[in-house]
Amino acid sequence: MASNSNKVMILEVCRISPSMESPESALVLSLTFTYFDCFWFRFLPVERIFFYELDVPSSALFYSVILPKLKRSLSITLSYFLPLAGNLTWPLDAKPVLSYVPNVHDAISLTIAESNADFKHLSGNGIREAVESHPYIPELHLSESSAPIIALQVTLFPDQGFCIGVSAHHATLDGKSTIMFTKAWAHICKQVITKELEEYPSLSPELTPFLDRSSVHDPDGLDMEYLKKFPANIKFSPKSLELVPAFYEMSGSVRATFEVSVQDIKRIRQKVVSKLKKPLHPSTFVLILSYTACCVVRAKGVEGNTQVYFAFAADCRARLDPPMAANFFGNCATPLGVYITAGDLVGEYGVVTAAEMLSEEIKGLEVRGVYETAKQNLGKLIYMRIETNKPKMFVSVAGSPQFRVYETDFGFGKPKKVQISSVDKTGAISMAESKDGSGGVEIGLVLKKHEMEVFESVFVDGLKDV
């Protein structure tokens, strides 16, 4: 078959349906959208790649044992996650809906591929071209009238390892939900591998999806307001499922990963807290975002009067009243953001300024509440709003150290690398916990080559000087 690069060959594209061994798989399922879903409705899919190095690298072992186990466990996992096998539609006389009907059409696409690329190069932290990751991400085949929820790709690197690429539609999944599914798949795959199944594999409570959306109250109809008015500067056809275009120009871009140790975080916190005007306790997330964003502004050489918009999402499961179940499956994150002038970020106290303002924004969410914040977001139209002619720059975040992505073990060991590939389309900074479990943080980003070289120098030297 044709390959999608000179290094990757597509061997098979199959459809995996929920296992009919589970009685739940025979049920028809329909989920309506909440205002959380509707805010993210047109955002680009979130793409991740999980790289696994094999202790016994053998193509025969992969095709005879590993791949069949992955397919079998995926089918079982989908019986718990039926929405993923369904499709997103937007009927003319109704709101958007996610529906699953148990037939041959409701399944997910799984691509099997083989690559002769350098596995260690792709799964390393060093600077490399951003486009090198693209062949390992499956495409979500969207149309104006229907959209799948998730697509998967498993790629073998003979005698090296394999990777699993995930492309997830943001209208139905936030980051926590996507990782919940991936970990559930890994958990069941481990059961399939390690023992003969005498009974249907089970999931722990934290990996069992909770689908009830009745506790998400929307008295003002924010769901439809988001769909009508967001984003403000792009016009879509009525009921269209089109997504916004990529925010970032990919040509000539490079990707790299950087580590921030727990000792680095401690020193950054001490410096920030000693300079704060208010008694705040910035989270690790806030400290890393503040420090990294200041380095990005320096690397890009942004002019001092440029308004830099920090955009990030806060998980609202525990912030709703009453709280949503921790294992709620769907979108339950609200966007937050602040403007800071580039000149303030590159100054001596740039990290302190950013950390203070970001902490205040999070504190404001607690004071206002989730729904009032969602109403404010409608007015601000975060990321896409049209304002004055002031120059602007966006800094956003993908992922979180709290997702614990490096615990995703399918029975072949923990990932050597987990990469959020879609940041090359959004310009976001990705975050994950350090894979060694030391308490540090791993960040990834995509920049122009000369910007990345400056960023690396500023980032590394800055950690030494803290």
Task: Describe what this molecule looks like in 3D.
The protein has helices at about 35-40, 60-80, 120, 175-195, 220-230, 260-275, 285-300, 340-345, 350-370, 370-380, 425, 450-465, and strands spanning about 10-15, 30, 45-55, 85-90, 95-100, 110-115, 130, 145-150, 150-155, 160-170, 255-260, 305-315, 335-340, 390-400, 415-420, 430-435, 440-450. The protein has about 475 residues and is α+β, with helices and mostly antiparallel strands. The protein has a 7-stranded mixed β-sheet. Strand 16 (about 430-435) and strand 17 form a beta hairpin. The longest helix has 22 residues, at about 60-80. The N and C termini lie far apart (about 55 Å). Keywords: Acyltransferase, Transferase.
Outline the secondary-structure elements.
Elements: E1 8-16, E2 29-32, H1 35-39, E3 46-53, H2 59-80, E4 87-89, E5 97-100, E6 108-115, H3 119-122, E7 128-129, E8 146-148, E9 150-157, E10 161-168, H4 175-194, H5 222-229, E11 253-260, H6 262-275, H7 284-300, E12 307-315, E13 333-341, H8 342-345, H9 350-368, H10 370-380, E14 392-399, E15 417-420, H11 423-426, E16 429-433, E17 441-448, H12 449-465
Parallel strand pairs: 6-9, 12-14, 14-16
Antiparallel strand pairs: 1-6, 2-5, 3-10, 3-15, 4-5, 4-8, 7-11, 9-10, 11-17, 12-13, 16-17
Helix pairs in contact: 2-4, 6-7, 7-9, 7-12
Keywords: Acyltransferase, Transferase
InterPro entries: CAT-like_dom_sf, Plant_metabolite_acyltrans
Pfam families: Transferase
